[in-house]
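FIELD: query
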Amino acid sequence: MATGGKETSLSLWRWLRRSSVRYVMLLALDGACAGGSLTLALLLRFEGSIQAPYVALLPRFIALLVAARVLANLLFKLHRWSFRFSGLSDGVRVVLSGLLGTGLFMSAVYFSQMQGPPRSVVVLEFFLTTAAMGSMRFSPRLAWMYLTDRTRTSQNGAIRTVIVGAGAAGDLLLRDLQRSDEHNYQVLGFVDDDSSKWGMIVNGKPVLGAIADLPQLAKKHGIAKVLIAIPRLPAGRIREILSLCADLKLRFKILPVSYVYLHDRAASTMLQDLTPEDLLPRPAVSFLDSGAGHSVRGRRVMVTGSAGSIGSEICLQLARAGVGQLVMVDLNENGLYMLQRRLEREHPDVPAVAEVADIRDAGRMQALMERYRPQDVVHAAAHKHVPLMEAAPCEAVKNNVLGTRNVALAASTCGVERFVYISTDKAVRPTGAMGATKRVGEMLVRAMAQRSKTRFCAVRFGNVLGSAGSVVPLFREQIAAGGPVTVTHPEVRRYFMTISEAVGLVLQAAYGDYGELCVLDMGEQIRIIDLARHMITMVSLVPEVDIPVVFTGLRPGEKLFEELLTDEEERAQRVDSKILVAQSPPPPADLAERISQLERVAAAQDHQRVVALLRELVPSYHPFVPPDSLAQGETVEQEVSIR
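FIELD: result
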């Protein structure tokens, strides 16, 4: 231990000594610049022949001036100069230090009661010394940047690059790229929609034109990469850029944060590949930043379906919010184990318990509720794959309806304070068994809310981008394999959210206690064919040239577009910028009896009768059979993950 401490002390001393030598050398050069500038100023003033009185006083002038300059530079810390990262503010420091040095010099001359140099000499010396000190400090950086740029340009691997956005973030990104030698971007210039910037020079690089000019500029200059440096650029504009460049095989990167945050980290290190999440038409939402985030702290929460995409994100966000105890329930023991390991690693202070259980087992649900006595239950477990549930409607009923009933009854019996049911947009005018059973689940939860002390709430939203079984991983896999990308219909559209945004809003709605049925505002629907083409463009390939797109036809239970509200719910009240409370007709009075009948028919594996009973319970449910006109349609979209 002592040896290690001694070595550390020696290393620190060496570093301090090297720094001290550097400081002394820099101040000595400043002094030399001052002495030389004063001599040169006198020579210029007297046309090459300094008058005798000033020749005699010159050594004293130089001594006072050097002392004044060194003192001023110490006060402005010009000896602690970063040759690589100096900027405009550092240049201002040089000028201010020069003014202070001149003031100190004239004061010293005055108080010493000696004849001072002519005023023109003082002014000349100030400009000469300031210019010399500035040149000495900035020239190494400029030379290094020039040589680095020349070296990068001469290399075969240099990537000709353009920056989208000539504003503050674009300027900062270019500066960081110019200072760094850890990339091979050869930045040719900027594009920006602000016409007043066209033709301007920003840090030595021209603003080449508008964003709409990207295709022509890319062809003219051989551009291979586009760096988007407009923080929070609207998703619609990103989609336009991708559409403009669809046939150019460009690579894209984007700065995902605000300009203010960029001051804390190098802009180039924050560049990330453009992803499908960047195409969503709204900014993300954080549950922790919402007013409801503090409501979770210290509470006991049970999450069913916690090993799935939505369930696991719910657990992670609850852990970040400081939940008192987290009970994770799922039938997928491997996914449950991996989630528990992650929570132990990332949130070791949060008590997290994993329980392997089937929500269709009423006794097991009751036992878990009695054992852990959760204050809140988030029910995310469900069968969620539309085509598979069309082939197995009885299984959809057992899990999505009867499983929901088991969890809800157990929660109510054990005095749970809050119960949140995760629903889907496919419950609105459903065309498949999956959507119909989720709609019945909504009814069941709302019926429980009318007779239980537990606050029951159903939260309905659309597809989750990038979740297990969703269209994004499927498209990535197909693109990586060289295609084709399979799309079921050219006009199919879907609502999309990121997993973190969807879960953040679900928890915000749940802990906001807004009402029995909350609907998340999903923004505008996105055409799946456009998503497929943009994902192909993102990886520097040309849609339908490098990667073919094949239409396969709508599958059973799928439809061209989804809805978030029924006709009766259209007058939903907006309680938050992205959360609506829907006033849906009350569940039927004999709902319990109908669900019991569904239970008996599902146990008998009578598929046709199950579908008939679902149609009676959900009159808007119309099993969908693709007509011949749609045989070439929709995407192979694995539906929203609700586990």
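FIELD: remark
The chain is about 50% helix and 15% strand.
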